[in-house]
Amino acid sequence: MLSQEQVKELRRDFPSLRQKHPVNRRRPIYFDNSCVTLTPRPVAEAVWDYSVSHPGCGGHRSGHWFAEATQAKVASARRALGKLLGVPPVKVSQNDPAYPVIFTRNTTEGLNLVANSLGLLEGETVVLTNKEHNSNLCPWQEFERRGGRLQFVPVLEDNTFDLDRFAAVVEQDHSVKLVALHHSSNLDGVEVPLADAIAIVRRAEREQGRNIFVCVDGAQGAPHSRLNLGYPDKPEYLDVDFYAGSLHKMLGPTGVGFLYGRPECLDSLKPFIVGGSTIFETSVHRRPTYAEWPDRFEAGLQNYAGMIGAGRAAAYLQPLLGEIKPYECHLNGALTQMLEPLQRKGVLRILGPAAPAKRGGVITVVLPWGANDPPMGCFSQQALDHNIMYRSGYFCVDSWFESNSHRLPNRFSTLRFSLYFYNTLQEVERVGHIMTRAFGSA
Ligand SMILES: Cc1ncc(COP(=O)(O)O)c(C=O)c1O
């Protein structure tokens, strides 16, 4: 686990943590990491360096110095990302070995790419939970509109994954063609036991003699866990077919994401957005023929500054990844303990299981008041005064709120504090004190 000393040292890399609020002159306490993480100086410098040193295009279009430098840095960014995800490079036809990692704008785009390009057929079924982010729900609902079927596996009472029900669906419904699961939830930080779920899928495949794809929404997994997506003989291997993530949730620039695909799955994925860079050959007489991946899926001029920054973010995260989660759980434990009296009094409820270790770096509380009720006003004013940044609302998991409305008060508000490794115990204690003060006497 990271020590307070290490965290103090790491915080020096984040200039935004030293910015003072224009009105209250306080430094930020940033708890909106499930949405966007802060940018460390080396990532900002990599973006700056591209912009001032060689702001050219990539994609082998131009042959000049700027373009070559850009292309080389994009290749090295892809390599850094491949390493972070634990995937080896593979040989794609006559080209150099390539990492099976596609740059996208975000997780949402990666999941849309899979849902649109995998060639899923009418009548085939996609299995999901009822706690998916809209980005891992809407693309499959569009598939449903095209004649596909969806099967939802509701989460258990404590919001954890229902492995038994999932197994029953996958084993009994022979129309299941794909399972689309989140790695970790942005609602409550609870992880899906992916290794167990995937083992069930692979067993069903063997028994039924057919193929089932595993597509993971890794938006909240990749920033917090060391991944092994490509080495079956090494520990912690996750036998996924697709894994999508967002670099802006893992220290990178905004608007850059990735889609890992098992090489043979990427081979069979049809082009989605087509045009410049994606083609092998075009003619006015014939349909285009398309390039190999990754080019086939990176259409048009790309966000090269962002890709290069993403590569730097991946390299920055690499040595830290094993240590992040235990540290977040430690902070989560401290806040949970501070909120215990309020929970006992029935004033608030922390979503997810009681054990903080099962909620990673997310604490979402449900309160029995509307946003304009005095206790909420008191809290939000205090949070503003202390420059605490958090989230409230449905966190893009509206469907969970809909299916759990019977378990929620008639009027309620939610507050989500999502942590990362640069948060400190003092910050967590500050918000704990403010909540106790605002809600304790209500
Ligand atoms: C679990 C989960 N999936 C998908 C997304 C969508 O990510 P993006 O907006 O970067 O595409 C998010 C964003 O918060 C998320 O938390």
Description:
The protein is α/β, with parallel strands linked by helices and 442 residues long. Helix 2 (41-53) packs antiparallel against helix 9, helix 6 packs parallel to helix 7 (194-208) and helix 10 runs parallel beside helix 13 (425-440). The protein has 13 helices and 16 strands. A hairpin with a 5-residue loop joins strand 2 (90-91) and strand 3 (97-98). It is globular, with a radius of gyration of 23 Å. Helix content is 37%, strand content 14%. Strands 4-10-9-8-7-5-6 form a 7-stranded mixed beta sheet, sandwiched between helices. The chain has a 3-stranded antiparallel beta sheet with strand order 13-14-16, with helices on one face. It folds into 2 domains: 4-39 and 322-439, Aspartate Aminotransferase, domain 1, CATH 3.90.1150.10; 48-319, 3-Layer(aba) Sandwich (Aspartate Aminotransferase, domain 2), CATH 3.40.640.10. Bound molecules: pyridoxal-5'-phosphate. Pyridoxal-5'-phosphate binds at residues 34-35, 106-108, 133, 135-136, 182, 186, 217, 219-220, 246, 257. Residues 34-35, 106-108, 133, 135-136, 182, 186, 217, 219-220, 246, 257 line the site of pyridoxal-5'-phosphate (PLP).
